[in-house]
Design goal:
Number of domains: 2
Number of helices: 4
Strand order of the largest sheet: 8-9-1-10
Distance between the termini: 28 Å
Mean pLDDT: 87
Strand content: 15-25%
Helix content: 25-40%
Order of helices and strands: EHEEEEHEEEEHEH
Low-confidence stretches: none
Structural class: alpha+beta
Number of strands: 10
Length: 170
């Protein structure tokens, strides 16, 4: 099967969604405090890994480059902490302290946030569709991982079940 889909029970979906929203709120608050401390506008763009929820490595470049920052040579529209300076190292530490909000790491029922199979690193897609949490993998999970999943939380469903939920989402 080219795409494997699991569906979680409704009560688990509510708890997961609450935990993820809480993690996102903590991240937003930490970013606001960082911007305030560094006297940066609240609409400053952040450049982060892991679909914008991971480690922040830079911010959008304004008309002037503040002390302790340098232009990213690969992305001229981004400035990075200049770790060659004391203030740049402090800024880098502040950015590293901003919490991540990767929803995959919060998945319940022993669902992994990544898997290596056949020399391939896989990350699942995660969607909340009408009260059901769907997790999709580009390949079938190995039996040793599949057998660890909590059967009270996850059920493997046909891809058509996912598509039907996607089409009827309100």
């Amino acid at each position: 099967m080219p795409f494997t889909v699991y569906r979680a029970t409704t009560d688990v979906t509510v708890a997961y969604t609450t935990d993820y929203e809480r993690a996102l709120e903590k991240r937003r608050e930490a970013i606001e405090r960082f911007l305030d401390r560094n006297r940066l506008p609240q609409d400053t763009g952040m450049y982060a890994g892991d679909e914008g929820t991971g480690k922040i490595h830079g911010i959008s470049r304004g008309s002037t480059i503040p002390s302790g920052w340098r232009v990213d040579p690969q992305q001229p529209e981004v400035i990075l902490p200049d770790r060659r300076t004391k203030i740049g190292r402090q800024i880098s530490e502040e950015l590293a302290a901003i919490p991540h909000a990767n929803g995959r790491r919060l998945l319940p029922g022993r669902m992994p946030d990544h898997c290596v199979t056949e020399r391939t690193l896989m990350h699942p897609s995660v969607e909340n569709l009408d009260g059901h949490l769907f997790v999709g993998w580009p390949r079938a999970l190995p039996d040793k991982i599949n057998n660890l999943l909590a059967s009270t939380v996850w059920e493997q469903v046909p891809l058509s079940t996912y598509h039907l939920a996607k089409e009827t989402e309100t």
